[in-house]
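Tutorial handout. Part one gives the primary structure; part two gives the three-dimensional structure as tokens.
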Amino acid sequence: ALLGRFRQVRRSLPKQPGKVLGFIGAKGGVGTTTVALNIASALVMQQKRVVAAEIRSSYGTFSAQMRLDQPKGLVNLLEHDPGKTNEHLVSLHLAVLPSGLKLLVGPQSVAEYRGVEPQQVETIIQIIASMVDYAILDLPCYPSDANQAAIRCCDLVELVVEPEPTSLASGIVAVDLLKSWGVYGDRLGIIVVNRTPIVIPIKLDQFKTALGHQIIGVIPSEADALFSSQLAGLPIILYQPSSDVTKTFVEITKRISATTGWVK
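Part two.
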């Protein structure tokens, strides 16, 4: 009888929501989506429940990178009244990868482009966080009310940059924007992506000084491996588990752990 009562009480207790990690590029084309998908996959490999979501009003590339066939996603979910949105409804709009990672994909055609209300964003993110250990958000690099709402839901925001002058200049502006949205101190980290070999890259110390935040990780240049993994429809962390890129993504999760204690 006591055991039965204990189980009943435990079921009635409010669930501790998962952590929300936001990934946003200093500008377009720096590899933010690739980083988000691989960090999400690294967490799944640690036996964590994870949903990665594209919170955007324009084209999302989760589906193309993972070679999904016309999945339901954010656009269909937004057609429902936020007041009636719940875990079951969100689950119906998630694509499930063989690894166990679940995806909420963004719009897949111009016909699906539409504005996203901040209230809708907050509701969806809060519901996803209640379902998992980690909610990974792939966010657009432009300012909007919806993007601001998503950022404010995040426990940690990672700004993705490339080691070149334009990206650094864009990163400085992005840091100022994030500060205006309330992201300070340890809530913001920097991930540097070497997408292609650069003859004279900007030194990491320059990035740290100019952006004023800790560099969480530096992704090495392995363009061929990343391209091959996308052709296979897999994050590189699963496609080439022994590669230097994979090791870096795993190391990033450890560094996040050292900073926040989120990853065990």
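Part three, for discussion. The CA atoms of residues 18 and 175 lie 25 Å apart. The chain has a mean pLDDT of 86.
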